[in-house]
Design goal:
Blueprint: E1 2-5, H1 20-28, E2 32-36, H2 47-53, E3 56-58, H3 61-67, E4 70-72, H4 79-82, E5 90-93, H5 101-110, E6 113-116, H6 131-148, E7 170-174, H7 178-190, E8 193-198, H8 201-211, E9 215-219, H9 222-231, E10 234-237, H10 252-256, E11 263-266, E12 287-290, E13 293-296, H11 306-327, H12 330-333, H13 336-339, E14 342-345, E15 348-349, H14 352-358
Parallel strand pairs: 1-2, 1-4, 2-3, 4-5, 5-6, 7-8, 7-10, 8-9, 10-11, 11-13
Antiparallel strand pairs: 6-14, 12-13, 14-15
This protein binds nicotinamide-adenine-dinucleotide.
Length: about 350
């Protein structure tokens, strides 16, 4: 199969679909790989690295979209890219279609077979291709929150760890999955006082086991969100309902009751956000202030640490990618977990939660 990897074109997105090490794996399996010139240069993967791994360097994305059997990307295709996709071609990338009817319509028009990283499952019901980016975003959420709590960035001037004689800052994490757990690790590492809310009691039990008495676990109710958000210096939004838009758990009224200069980091913004006042921002202009509360809602947080993220992502996507390259869409017939990744095929939405969210609006 001919695998094509265009350079990412979203604002400040420096990740790339394949690392040189991943290219070598595809080539070892008998496939050809074409990579856009300088596609990985910003994160230290040179054209020479890719050529040494067995890829051919191609000058324009148009040539890649026109000839490849499978396009491997990181972010959802932008409108100009969607229009170059075609029936019979596989698109293997993050899509996040639920909050994005325009992209869904363009992919339907293209007729492409679109496999979304974020809905591929594993045998335990986890999301193995979302997990590495969630790990990155969870760890970054605390870094971003701590940074924005500084006075110069609009925050209250609170140091999360406190110092001897000064109480630490309070971190509220809503959603105790992969993002929430990694955020908690960083917040605990900084010395903050950490509370995690989740709707899953089994998950709260696991978190209690992982962190012992070092964090508080609380069942997620409107009352709990109300009480803990009033006290928090930093709130991290980390909920997920797979394939669906995020529920708005923190309302404008909650936010009005928060301390001035406190910070919200809505990691779930890529699924529409879980705070009522969230709107997607970019690494270039990551924050805005509403009701004296700083909002950080960068939709592609892992893009900020693009080298680490690209390598972590490739570790997870590679085995499924190789299966698709070896067998084409027949790979889905043998693997229910990979089949769960199928979001669009020949103009149809093939993922129920996305159809439920968007079906009538297309
Ligand atoms: P996950 O499935 O591991 O965890 C989600 C958790 O949310 C689960 O434990 C679930 O029980 C909990 N939850 C669901 N409804 C809840 C509620 N009402 N109250 C409290 N908890 C609730 O998911 P994850 O991998 O941690 O991802 C979390 C979010 O982060 C997703 O929306 C994902 O798309 C997003 N994400 C964003 C970025 C970014 O760059 N912005 C990067 C990676 C992941």
């Amino acid at each position: 199969m001919l695998i094509g990897v265009p350079k990412e074109i979203k604002n400040h997105e420096y990740r790339i679909g394949l690392t040189p090490a991943a290219v070598r794996e595809y080539v070892e399996h008998g496939h050809d790989v074409i990579i856009q010139r300088d596609g990985g240069l910003a994160i230290g993967f040179t054209n020479e690295d890719y050529e040494n791994a067995g890829a051919r360097i191609i000058d324009t994305p148009e040539e890649i979209f026109a000839s490849a059997d499978m396009i491997v990307k990181v972010k959802e295709p932008q409108p100009g890219e969607c229009k170059q996709l075609r029936e019979g071609q596989i698109l293997y990338t993050y899509l996040h279609l639920a909050p994005d009817p325009e992209q869904t319509r363009l992919l339907a028009e293209a007729g492409v077979t679109a496999i979304a990283y974020e809905t591929v499952t594993d045998n335990r019901g986890g999301l193995p291709l979302l997990a590495p980016m969630s790990e990155v975003a969870g760890r970054m959420a605390i870094q971003a929150g701590a940074h924005n709590l500084e006075k110069a960035h609009g925050g209250s001037g609170t140091l999360l760890g406190g110092v001897p004689g000064v109480a630490p800052g309070k971190v509220l994490i809503i959603g105790g999955g992969v993002v929430g757990t990694q955020a908690a690790k960083m917040a605990v590492g900084l010395g903050a006082e950490v509370t995690i809310l989740d709707r899953s009691l089994p998950r709260l039990r696991e978190l209690d086991d992982i962190f012992g008495g070092r964090i508080k676990t609380v069942y997620s109710t409107v009352d709990a969100i109300d009480a803990y958000s009033r006290e928090a210096d930093l709130v991290v939004g980390a909920v997920l309902i797979p394939g669906a838009a995020a529920p708005k758990l923190l309302t404008r009224d909650h936010i009005k009751n928060m301390k001035p200069g406190s910070v919200l980091v809505d990691v779930a913004i890529d699924q529409g956000g879980c705070f009522e006042t969230s709107k997607a921002t970019t690494h270039q202009d990551p924050t805005y202030v509403i009701d004296d509360v700083v909002h950080y809602c960068v939709a592609n947080m892992p893009g900020g640490v693009a080298r680490t993220s690209t390598i972590a992502l490739n570790n997870a996507t590679l085995p499924y990618g190789i299966a698709l390259a070896n067998k084409g869409i027949d790979a889905l017939a043998n693997d229910a977990n990979l089949r769960n990744g199928l979001n669009m095929h020949k103009g149809y939405i093939t993922y129920k939660a996305i159809h439920d969210d968007l079906g009538e609006r297309l």
